[in-house]
Design a protein that fits this description.
Helix content is 2%, strand content 45%. The protein contains two helices and 44 strands. The protein starts with 21 loop residues before the first helix and ends with a strand. It is an all-beta fold.
């Protein structure tokens, strides 16, 4: 349908006019139709009203004018709204009808035109400037303002961005000058300076202007001290100067030792020079090393001939004994340039050692490994005699033992005639068991000849009627080094024997704690009683 005029009436002739009366035709028209004269004046006919389509009699349905598109029906920047038997138009957001009515039908030439939102004052907020767009608008910041919480351009109804005046902050005076006055700290503010006490104005501009970039610019005044340049102090720098005073400090790598750190410009125009002395910073503990596996040596750096207190802390662990820990500390004081302290370190142990100079709050560390220099202490057992072929023996070990024992071996020595035994390498005995120290807590019961394997060795049953000596060997192992100590643990008798011990440091006595043969070469001799 043409958007500017209604369509011509539609003519329908469902039956000959000659067979109908005027009243009959008009009575059959649809409710949304009108009864009109035919063009040839031959009778009446039913035509659907404007906005409806059909045969005029049995049907007159609403015609959706908007289905052909809003642009064709209403024009540019519009929305078409269909109604029952008609339609109307509205403008899109950002546009308004030329007739200033909220709805319209474009048959009178009404159209949608852009709304100039920028006519509204303050739409973009303080410092913002509006730019009108086709159907919309955007904002940017004027000179002297900066956008915050967003980027330019921005839309104040859709974004959180806004314009904020540029603030240069408090103007900082140049060397020798002081701030006299300032109109503010924001864009366009002016600050005025003058030379401070003890300085003279030697030229340049004494005003600064807060610029659009947030920086104070334009000042070039030169203020010269009455006393001239600040005195130079070796290995120091000037960190603050105000009028007739200058403060010095030591440069990196040096520290203040003695003297004052302030130079003063006197009324006579002469600097009263600071007396600061800067000396090189050295670690309070240096050249740290260990001698003889237990003695610490270090160089003590002190600025005065004072006594320094040192705290030595050391912690030891063993690779073969995971539960072993040796933690100790000691304090000492010294005025010496070189300090030496010898520690009571245990053998076969990995140590981490820390030395702290208490007053200087400085710590140095070193690590060392002690070697296996002595055989382990012989285990404490109670010697007993048995007439059973499967005696049970008992070993006790202190839970906080700091010995270097790696494992124990149970040796069975058959007694026949004269037998010679050495702890380091026996020939006539056999190993019945090898037990790692980690498998022993505070005590261990061991039955000789139970037929089981211990550490890869068979604890073979003892033969009836034969005589045996049971020996317990304690072994310390450190890398490829082995040290051992032996002790007579028990005697299994088949007949009467007399035991003679030939050793400097080993003995055994019935019903008493047996004494160990201190490693090295220890020999037991056994003689059969005739």
């Amino acid at each position: 349908m043409d958007a500017h005029q209604p369509p011509p009436p539609q003519t329908h002739t469902d039956m000959p006019a000659t067979s109908q009366t005027l009243e009959d035709v008009c009575a059959t028209c649809h409710a949304n139709a009108t009864c009109e004269e035919k063009a040839d004046l031959s009778g009446k006919v039913c035509n659907c009203k404007y906005g409806f389509v059909g045969n005029g009699r049995s049907s007159c349905q609403d015609k959706d004018e908007c289905q052909i598109g809003a642009v064709k029906m209403c024009g540019q920047h519009t929305t078409c709204h269909n109604t029952y038997g008609s339609f109307y138009c509205t403008c899109l957001h950002g546009y308004h009808p030329s007739n200033n009515l909220p709805i319209f039908i474009p048959n009178d030439g009404t159209h949608c035109q852009d709304i100039d939102e920028c006519r509204i004052s303050g739409l973009c907020g303080e410092g913002g400037q509006c730019r009108n767009l086709d159907g919309s608008f955007d904002c940017s910041c004027r000179r002297g303002y900066q956008v915050h919480d967003g980027t330019e351009p921005f839309h104040p109804h859709q974004d959180q961005a806004f314009c904020k005046v540029v603030d240069c902050g408090q103007p900082a005076p140049l060397q020798g000058s002081v701030l006299l006055s300032a109109t503010g700290t924001t864009y366009g503010s002016v600050a005025v300076f003058e030379c401070g006490d003890g300085f003279l104005w030697r030229g340049g501009v004494n005003t600064s202007l807060c610029g659009a970039d947030g920086q104070w610019r334009g000042r070039s005044m030169r203020c010269e001290a009455k006393c001239g340049p600040v005195p130079f102090l070796a290995r120091s720098e000037v960190v603050w100067r105000n009028g007739s005073l200058a403060m010095h400090r030591c440069v990196e790598g040096y520290r203040s030792w003695r003297g004052t750190n302030v130079s003063v410009c006197s009324s006579s125009g002469v600097w009263l020079r600071a007396t600061l002395t800067c000396i090189e910073i050295k670690p309070p503990i240096s050249h740290l090393y260990i001698s003889n596996e237990k003695c610490l040596h270090w160089r003590a750096e002190k600025y005065e001939e004072d006594t320094e207190v040192y705290k030595v802390t050391y912690s030891g662990t063993r690779d073969y004994e995971r539960t072993f820990h040796d933690r100790r500390k000691q304090l000492l004081s010294s005025r010496a340039k070189w300090v030496e302290v010898c520690l009571d370190l245990l053998p076969v142990t990995n140590y981490s050692i820390s030395i702290t100079a208490v007053s200087a709050q400085f710590t140095a560390s070193i690590s060392t490994n002690t070697s296996l220099t002595e055989p382990p202490a012989a285990p404490v057992v109670y010697y007993r005699e048995f007439e059973t072929p499967a005696p049970t023996l008992r070993l006790r070990r202190s839970p906080d033992a700091l010995d270097a024992i790696s494992f124990y071996q149970v040796l069975v020595l058959p007694v026949e005639g004269v037998v010679v035994f050495t702890c380091s390498s026996g020939r006539s005995e056999y190993i019945a068991a090898q037990i790692h120290v980690s498998h022993i807590t505070t005590a261990m019961n061991f039955t000789v000849g139970d037929g089981r394997h211990y550490g890869g060795f068979l604890n073979a049953p003892l033969e009836n009627g034969r005589n045996y000596y049971i020996i317990l060997r304690a072994v310390s192992q450190w890398k490829r080094t082995l040290k051992s100590s032996c002790v007579l643990w028990a005697k299994v008798r088949g007949s009467s024997f007399v035991l003679k011990l030939s050793s400097v440091s080993a003995a055994a006595a019935l019903s008493m704690v047996s004494l160990a043969a201190v490693a090295g070469y220890c020999c037991f001799r056994f003689f059969k009683r005739m």
